[in-house]
């Protein structure tokens, strides 16, 4: 099994690809496969969230490109900025990962949240696309001292 423990920031071109959905890209410990079927073990620093386009350095020296897999999403659009902000507030209040675009919000498919968004006046549509949500306010510098935490946490992805 190929071991990957390091993010790569150099200029070398990737020689392998690792396609993962968002939930898998939030795991620092994961057994999975490259696109060619080779088995890999990810052992990344805790709290690492991989994004499409990130590159990893494998133990054998290969550079592996992370690809954000298409997944089932809901896209919400609203009549005006106030309604869109209100929808974003209610999603955030539920600690839902949200991808923000120009005039739209995307979340992972969830019929309960879809019903909530419709009730708030949003027009919702299902689509399949890579999911790249905001890192959130907790991505940098927020600590949970009451639990003795020493690192930032995104609540949904501890």
Gyration radius, rounded: 18 Å
Portion of residues in beta strands equals 35-45%
CATH class of the largest domain: Mainly Beta
Report the mean per-residue pLDDT as an integer.
89
- Reading the helices and strands in chain order gives EEHEEEEEHEEHE
Uncertain segments = 140-158
Q: How many β-strand runs?
A: 10
What's the overall geometry?
Answer: elongated
Largest sheet: 6 strands, mixed
Instruction: Return the structural class.
Output: alpha+beta
Query: What order do the strands of the largest sheet run in, or round the barrel if closed?
Result: 2-6-5-1-4-3
What is the fold-level CATH name, i.e. the topology of the largest domain? HSP40/DNAj peptide-binding domain
CATH second-level architecture of the largest domain:
Sandwich
Total domains: 2
Write out the CATH superfamily name of the largest domain: Urease metallochaperone UreE, N-terminal domain
Helix percent band: 10-25%
The DSSP helix count reads 3
Distance between the termini: 26 Å
